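Hi there, hope your week has been kind to you so far. Thanks so much in advance, here it is.
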Amino acid sequence: MARKWLTRLRLGLWRRDQDDRDLDDELRFHLAEEARLRVDRGASPLDARESARRDFGNAQRVKEVTRAMRTMTSLETIAQDLRYGRRVLSRSPLFAFFAIASLALGIGATTAIFSLFNAIVLRTLPVKDPSRLVALSFVAGGSRQNNFLTYPLFERLREANTTLDGLFAWMTVPRIAARIDARTEIVSAGYVSGDYHRILGLRPVLGRLLDANDDRDSSATSVVIGHDYWRRRFAADPSVVGTQITVGDFSYTIVGVEPRGFVGTNVGSTSDITFPLRASRHGTTGPQPWTATNWTWIEVMARLRAGVSQEQAAQELTSIFRAMGPGVKPLPNAAPPTIFLEPAASGGQSTLRRNYETRLRLMLMLLAAVVLLASLNVATLMLARAEARRDEMTMRLALGAGRWRLVRQLVTESVLVATLGGILGLSFAWWASEALLRLAVRDTAVTAIDLTPDLRVLAFALLTSVGTCVLFGFLPALRSTATLRSTGRHEVGARRRRWLERTLVASQTALSLVLLVFMALFIRSLQNLWARDPGYVRANVAMFSTDARLAGKKGEEIPRTYRTMLDALAALPGVRSVSISTVAPVSTSFYFVNGVGRVGERELRDGERVRAASNFLSPGYFATMGIPLVAGRDFDARDDPDAPKVVIVSERLAGKFIGPAVGQTIDFAGGSEVIGIARDNRYASVKDAPRDVVYAPLFQSAGALANLQTFEVRYDGPSGAQLQAIRTAVAAVDPALTLFNLNTLEGYTRESLSQERLMAATSSYVGAFALLLASIGLYGLMAYAVTERTSEIGLRMALGSSPGGIRSMILRDGAGTVLAGVVVGFGAALWLVRYVQGQIVDLQPMDPASFAVATVVLVIVAAAAAFLPALRASRIDPIVALRHE
């Protein structure tokens, strides 16, 4: 059966023309032989040919029957419909352009957001059986903490559980200095427990991967490198195994290369070099985290045993946790402790995913509305276009074509439009997804996100295209062919009730108003965030980060290098002040938090303990940032390592002291004297409220110097020249110093609002596109209405109607449709805005200004779209109009 079907398919698709020629030759031969026999029986040649044709019957019918017996006629008919549809579209280039372009922009934008959503949220890790992976986090007092656990807790859970095939821990470091072949370079690093690669089920491209023996003690010296780093740095050299890498004073040996496509277990982070977890403490002094019960620093993931549910594993792990006693709880006052598990097939709950998952879902819904709007728009255009083809359809019906044959032809044209729109949309999505990614995240995370379209993205684009085809193609086809049997040429010029077309345009208007309200809300929310007072002056401040340790500095060389840099930068022309801070202003991913239990003579009870943010500063920080001191003094040269410990506190924290805070002590760094009070500011982000902050002198803390430092430079003049001067000055101090993220404070602030900017940009695209489609739909409806009423308009003008009266009549005709859409859209917007309440800042969802602006803009654009057909109607020549039929 299958062989017979394939044979018919081959004949139908590849040998059709040759078979048609053979059939023609066979029919001619048969008729010629029949005519010869009749001549032999005494008939004249002319009579013989005529009688042979007459007795044979309809030759075309014989061809069709023969063709149906040996070929795939349905495929041939579809091909004919496609060819005819292409010719029809080519005769209406303006319609084809608007239909295909609107679908391409709608499908493309939606697919672009879905590509981003797929890469960040949906795409599973390229590991063995990812559906059984779960991520662990700590829960206490009903509030879930970060995904970070203590090492003793990790070890205990790993040893005592019976429901897991294994646990592994990891941590990532965005940049370290590694010396390879006598050259120092900056690379990203991951530190993983010994079972990391085994539990994930990874196989090396080269050599071997890490195992439990590599992570047994602090002398761990084996490392593996990522596939991308292997190709980029070593040109995929197979002899890379055995190469030595030096980090600090420790040497490591490359033992293998991770598989292609694997970049780590967290979306948005990648590891060029993967070290054993024990190697993370090489070269460090002071307390070690292996036994610390309050040091949460590792992320943990596990693989469930076959047949074990996530709930069963969570219950067992929680029981193990609680049996360890209160001394291991990261938050001593939180009870009862609980282990929370969540599916990790797509990786752990990275910051990138937490920040963008909800917003990407919302953007997908917005753009789905745009695709719906584009489909309604094309449906309106096709209904209007069907009126122009009314004579054609009536003639085809009169010649014997069935209604469903006409429907199939019209739907085939819709499929052609949707296919072209989908192909162009997919091409647009490829470019747009890259642009959106760079708008959404910083360059450090871009390289770790793979936007290559996979089967899921292609299926999404295909289903979207098919869905739009059904929406805008099938209904107009049914509608336009349903009235052909009951109408004729004499009714073409008559005025009909166009309720379906008006319903479609009103729906477009309503949907456009909803999208415009969302656009106004997101734009106003972004404006409000930018206008917030951050508590510092962000204009004319340049910032960059560096780490003297990456340039090989050790011990006293580190503070000496930073002091030299401060002097060099302060000497630049136009520079007003320079400072250093360990926590960068507008930092949303890294800051210190300390527990404060005593302020002055006041002991804070458990419920009053303060989780205060902390920062380590050089003298001049407050002047550089424009943060005024409301009491006390700034740090200066006297606050050196040998001097008594001092701090400056924020106004909020100073309010917790009894009496003036200056001169009292606080239990920070073993007890420090408060020497000043700084005005409250938005410490980590302009989106955050002012918080309790403790500021400490940078050069008084050796531990603070062992971190990446951020320099702030307040300057006069253009920023471009100052940024270049900063690069030159730092290179003059030491060419080995690497500058990270050199930018202005305003630029940093814009980057910190990347999520809000993404929402504002997407909603602006959605709103503008919706406005365009609504205006096109209304214009098309009014233009065809004018064409339909040409005779009526001519008669009115012949009886004395003025051009202004005609314009008013046409505008009133469209005003009812627009008004109905505005009323419905206003009500829908009032109901839907509650779903974006968590995404807007300093603004109520039912913001009157946003609703008013959206409504006014929509009405103005709709009036302009309706005015053009009305103006054309008022200029119709009455004589020509009366002869229209």
About this structure: The first strand starts at residue 133 and ends at 140. The longest helix spans residues 351-388.
